[in-house]
Design brief:
Elements lengths: L2 H6 L14 H4 L38 E7 L9 E7 L12 E4 L7 E6 L4 E7 L8 E6 L10 E2 L20 E7 L9 H9 L4 E6 L4 E2 L10 E11 L3 E9 L3 E5 L2 E2 L18 E6 L2 E11 L6 E6 L9 E2 L9 E9 L11 E6 L9 E7 L11 E5 L5 E3 L2 E6 L3 E11 L2 E11 L10 E2 L2 H8 L9 H13 L3 H15 L7 H13 L6 H11 L6 H18 L6 H13 L5 H20 L3 H14 L6 H20 L3 H14 L8 H12 L3 H14 L6 H14 L3 H13 L5 H15 L1
Helix pairs in contact: 4-5, 5-6, 5-7, 6-7, 7-8, 8-9, 9-10, 9-11, 10-11, 11-12, 13-14, 14-15, 15-16, 15-17, 16-17, 17-18, 18-19
Length: 750
């Protein structure tokens, strides 16, 4: 089995704020290497479920905070190292010089920082002699005057420096961390990589894990980052080993401070996917110190170290088993406190995200916030969250949807027994680039439900614009109109580049509100046509106005003037695929107006023009096959209640084969979808047109049944009965006709 296939079989599990979503799809990246990112986190922060103990003596003067840590599991073997993740929440010094670890008696314990982000968390490996479940330790932090402590084991930062040197060092645990990649060339040597790492402006995150096999950055953006793996492996037997690297961009690895296998410079992973980049080493059984460094620039992310152990078939490389990577005893923080009492702590958890399906920008991101030690406070305690985007919520556990990318200062305020305590987190909402096990695609209606509690008056312009989008994509037309108007009132002058787009969204939403929204839609479409409106959107607004004025307002005489404006706009703009598509929609709309006004030949002329614009000759047999495929796709989406996708199929059908519209079938399907969507007014219009155009067609009975149903919902009882009678009069024997007979009998009995 090659390296790639081995990795793709591994399941993906992750902790913390993951960084993966659809950009593999957006940027055209294949999903194969996304399967690389199976991650097993050894150390977790969990909510306090153990009884709180009376506060122990405060051991260190000058220190403001501490975490009480307990071993929650003792592993087999001679391990004398425990690992814990401590939430600093902005209370620790930037270099970690203020961190101290004490045992239950208050005696200093040697420790090492595997990763440290003072505003978020730190990973600490510390000596746990004669380890026992429930054994207690204290981690102190929060002292601006603290000097580096002799008990802290310093981690060599230079690649290839080998393990730390001290009387005691942690010989268990592999830490994985990622860092923002600064500008610079792809490193060709370990020294060049060291320079990139030394000048990194930002640490993304870190964790304990038992593998070097990742296909994304789980802590931040998956482009332009550095990966650092340092820790211990237990070689099971002495002998000859081969190690291989597969990396997208440069990778460097060392064992016991000696070069293992390097693949410098810029490259993709394919040439190393079968273990081609390998080195042979002689190893003795026992512990060895392993380092692996990786840089990522763009697109596919791969960082993988594999091996061929003694006895493996020649040329066979596989992932290094998790059992080879030693684990520390897992420890958990049970209490955060100061001298005055318990302290709140939290860590955001990215739940899922959404990329809008109809545009190339925008991301909604759902994040869960949970107080890690809620039980430390009284039942009367109040927990208030400030999410950094102008919005707030209360509760020990809350969810929030961020409407844009960016940095947000999240603050938790706990009010309890007359005291007020705070915790903070610098949250980055970044572009999520892959979809794997933990980060899934959310659903707009769920996001819209959460966002319905937002105060639009306190959102920034970008977030408010995206909220209009979210409501529109969630079929919450009144909310889209309401919030869109707030945007226009607040930001029309400041953002003339965005305002026309928002007005178009309001217009489209107005169309979903029935007859009452027609005039509002017309006004909003007209307002959206400005000098700053992109050409494609401007032409599409003209197309909408052609249909609304020519059909809804029965003013077909306005169509020529609108078409003239369409022609002028397209002539004066750069011809793009979007502009061409909008132009075809405008001509299509003119054909619809002619068809609605009983001018079928004029309608055909417009529809033929649409097809001619595509510049494709399609043989009749091929055309029939393609046309015949559309209904099946539409029915599939209807069965899934995916009405938006079903309407997109109808749009595609009418764009590619516009002359088919005179047969009434596309009108039938559009009406059927709108009926299922409970937009009965528009549904009745399209269904009525379909049966007018296609008497005797195969879909006539279903069209008349759906038309009768729509009229019934609109309160047009008499017209509904007429359609039921016409359906029965067809003399056809199918389920729709039978339903019509039964309905008429019920009506007559009443």
């Amino acid at each position: 089995m090659n390296v790639a296939s081995t990795l793709q079989m591994r399941s993906a599990t992750q902790t913390g704020v993951c960084a993966l979503h659809h950009s593999a799809l957006r940027h055209g990246v294949t999903a194969g290497w996304a399967g690389l990112c199976s991650v097993t986190a050894a150390i977790l922060i969990v909510s306090c479920s153990v009884p709180l103990h009376a506060q122990s003596s405060w051991h260190l003067e000058g220190w403001s905070h501490r975490a009480i840590v307990e071993l929650h599991e003792v592993l087999e073997g001679s391990i004398d190292t425990a690992g814990v993740k401590v939430l600093c929440n902005g209370q620790s010094q930037s270099d970690g010089r203020d961190i101290r670890v004490l045992d239950a008696t208050g005696q200093p314990v040697p420790f090492q920082l595997g990763f440290h982000h003072p505003k978020r968390y730190t990973l600490i490996s510390f000596r746990a002699a004669q380890a026992a479940t429930g054994q207690r330790y204290f981690v102190y932090f929060g002292n601006a005057n603290a000097k580096p402590d002799a008990t802290q084991v310093r981690t060599p930062t230079a690649p290839g420096a080998g393990p730390p040197q001290a009387d005691w060092i942690p010989r268990a645990g592999m830490t994985f961390s990622t860092w923002k990649r600064p500008p610079g060339d792809n490193p060709k040597t370990e020294k060049e990589f060291a320079q990139l790492l030394a000048t990194s402006p930002q640490a993304y995150g870190g964790r304990y894990q038992q593998k070097i096999s990742d296909g994304h950055n789980p802590f931040g953006p998956s482009d332009y980052y550095l990966s650092v793996y340092r820790g211990w492996v237990l070689i099971p037997e002495s002998g000859t080993y081969k190690f291989c690297t597969a990396s997208n961009e440069a990778s460097f690895s060392f064992l016991d401070g000696k070069k293992l296998v390097h693949w410098p410079g810029r490259h993709t992973s394919e040439r190393g996917a079968r273990g081609e980049k390998n080195e042979t080493v002689e190893l003795t059984a026992g512990l060895h110190y392993l380092e692996y460094y990786h840089e990522e620039v763009m697109l596919k992310q791969v960082a993988f170290l594999g091996w061929s152990p003694p006895g493996a078939p020649a040329g066979h490389f596989s992932a290094i088993p998790e059992s080879v990577y030693t684990k520390p005893h897992p420890a958990t923080v049970v209490v955060y406190e100061t001298r005055e009492g318990k302290q709140p702590r939290f860590e955001p958890d990215l739940v899922d995200s959404i990329w809008p399906s109809d545009r190339h920008e925008g991301q909604y991101t759902r994040v869960a916030f949970r107080l890690s030690n809620a039980s430390a406070f009284s039942p009367a305690a109040r927990f208030q969250w400030q999410f950094g985007d102008g919005q707030s919520a209360t509760g020990a556990e809350v969810e929030h949807v961020y409407l844009r990318l960016g940095d947000f200062a999240v603050t938790l305020v706990v009010s309890d027994n007359g005291t007020e305590q705070r915790a903070s987190w610098p949250l980055e909402i970044y572009e999520i680039q892959h979809v794997t096990g933990d980060i899934k695609q959310g659903r707009p209606p769920e996001y819209a439900r959460i966002a319905s509690q937002y105060d639009p008056a306190t959102l920034d312009s970008a977030s408010l614009k995206e909220l209009v989008h979210l409501y529109a994509e969630s079929d919450r037309a009144p909310d889209a109109i309401r919030v869109g108007q707030v945007f226009v009132d607040r930001f029309a002058a400041a953002h003339p580049e965005w305002t026309p787009h928002v007005q178009r969204l309001m217009a489209l939403a107005s169309l979903k509100t029935g007859a009452a929204g027609v005039d509002q839609a017309i006004a909003s479409f007209q307002d959206s046509i400005t000098d700053t409106t992109p050409a494609a959107e401007k032409v599409d607004s003209f197309a909408q106005l052609i249909a609304l004025l020519g059909i809804e307002k029965q003013q077909p005489q306005q169509v020529p003037a609108l078409l003239k404006q369409v022609e002028q706009t397209t002539r004066n703009s750069r011809t793009t695929a979007e502009v061409k598509a909008a132009y075809r929609r405008a001509i299509n709309a003119a054909g619809d107006v002619a068809l609605w006004n009983n001018q079928p030949q004029q309608a055909r002329n417009y529809y033929r023009r649409v097809e001619a614009m595509r510049g494709q000759f399609i043989p009749s047999q091929v055309r029939a096959a393609r046309v015949g495929a559309f209904p099946q796709s539409i029915r599939s989406y209807l069965a899934e209640a995916n009405y938006g996708a079903a309407l997109q199929i109808v749009d595609e059908w009418e764009d590619k084969f516009a002359t088919e519209k005179v047969k009434g079938q596309t009108f039938f399907w559009r009406g059927a979808i709108l009926s299922a969507r409970q937009q009965y007014r528009d549904a009745s219009r399209y269904l009525e047109r379909s049966v007018t155009l296609a008497l005797g067609a195969a879909f006539e009975t279903e069209a008349r049944w759906r038309l009768a149903e729509s009229l019934q919902h609109l309160g047009r009882e008499k017209e509904s009965r007429v359609e039921l009678a016409r359906l029965v009069a067809t003399g056809l024997n199918d389920s729709f006709t039978e339903q019509a007979r039964q309905r008429l009998k019920e009506i007559s009995r009443k």
